[in-house]
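Quick one: examine this chain and its backbone structure tokens and tell me how the chain folds. Here goes:
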Amino acid sequence: MSKKTVLLDVDGVIFDSNWVKEHNIIDAAKHFLPEKEALQFGEYFSSLNGIPRGLKTRNYFEDQSLANQILATYNRLNKESLKNFQFTEKAFETLQQLSNDYDLVALSGAEHAELLELFSHKGISDYFQSVFGGPATKIENLKSYDLTSTICFVGDSKTDHEVAEEYNLPFIFMSGYTQFQNWESYFDQFPEVKKIAFISSLPHTISS
């Protein structure tokens, strides 16, 4: 009997990496912009967590050469940070547990190659059936994926919820590491959405 599938976002769900990446994108922008403009861009960038970095950066800057320079610097800083990314609370143990009962699929806005390197370094590659990342969007990545057996998508951003809505997937919002401001009032509109603080609650939440 085939297993059911659980889709998992990565930053803010598996890894406590949102704030590290925010620091990296501001630092990258400061190489090319005055500090105030770099901070404004960083705020914009982090407000769109879940959307591929290339898409939101190139949409923000008219000067595509500047956008590409910032992206290249950001990619370098992320690569340097990867080994220091920490799991969210009990994430490693929970992934191990979940992989026994479900097919796990990672769905992230981060670059695909970056994700593969991160998963390999952290020893979780074998827990996942598939890993989807940028430059494609989450919605684009799921267009060719068979979602018949998928029972939920776990994410920490508004974008993640919008992806779940697009494909009519039950959504579980994880709040413990989110950068989604005012998420409580947002999800008041969606009482069907289950909420957890940490991924360790996921096995029980799925089965309940």
Q: What stands out?
A: The longest strand covers residues 102-111.
